[in-house]
Amino acid sequence: xxxxxxxxxxxxxxxxxxxxxxxxxxxxxxxxxxxxxxxxxxxxxxxxxxxxxxxxxxxxxxxxxxxxxxxxxxxxxxxxxxxxxxxxxxxxxxxxxxxxxxxxxxxxxxxxxxxxxxxxxxxxxxxxxxxxxxxxxxxxxxxxxxxxxxxxxxxxxxxxxxxxxxxxxxxxxxxxxxxxxxxxxxxxxxxxxxxxxxxxxxxxxxxxxxxxxxxxxxxxxxxxxxxxxxxxxxxxxxxxxxxxxxxxxxxxxxxxxxxxxxxxxxxxxxxxxxxxxxxxxxxxxxxxxxxxxxxxxxxxxxxxxx
Length: 306
Fold this sequence. Notes:
CATH architecture: Alpha-Beta Barrel
Binding site for Zn(2+) 1: 26, 28, 135, 254
Structural class: alpha/beta
Number of helices: 11
Number of domains: 1
Shape: globular
Organism: Streptomyces tabacisoli
Largest sheet: 6 strands, parallel
Pfam families: PTE
Distance between the termini: 14 Å
Strand content: 15-25%
Order of helices and strands: EEEHEHEEHHEHEHEHEHHEHH
CATH topology: TIM Barrel
Strand order of the largest sheet: 6-7-8-9-10-11
Low-confidence stretches: none
InterPro entries: Metal_Hydrolase, Phosphotriesterase
Cofactor: a divalent metal cation
């Protein structure tokens, strides 16, 4: 019996991975958290303008890592994709506990994996949009009880659907602990794991160990909160490419506040292609940068869905 072809689950339906074009592999169109009060990404028209600006410099796809309960506005995403021509991939999952009211966490204690599976296979409530990845998060050099709970649920949902798991690493730390839990204990294949923010802890030894596992390393920038690591990113990525791990690299913008959008005066999504891409081309060469922006995300997000 032949298996189904691998596809990327977009907000308008499943996509042939060869049709993604240039991919911003980690970003946010909408995001709302009590930790970022007054800086919410919740304006639909500004989201449309940002996508249009990204498309104007050659962007083809955006993967939104905003998980359950943080203002994803999933119902708005298909119309935004239609209006701008930019493909969008939405996320299920759950962030660190500090982003949520205690009563919301308590309400999901017994059915978190079920929520993830339902959003991946049936759709996010009130939207008809199916998620294409699972987003979870670790802590600073640690995995607390909340992180272990959400990662266990993510692993269960992965085994039920095949969906990739994307991980927020606080200040870029804890990646090896995440791999120990997800791969060794919970038996998630490493190539189905995307480890975010690894440029924010520029430890080349850890980065090589992560790449050697088969997981993807998602570098994101520019980052106001972690600007000191932005200038190290080309060297880190070049070192990994020279070590034979160019096929494990992803790139994203991670726009998390309203002021960070390009249409609001920040760098935003277009900056990845206007400024970051030329800088990376100097360090890695044009062919490797093309691989990072096109071929790698096509492989990372494509799933033989179950």
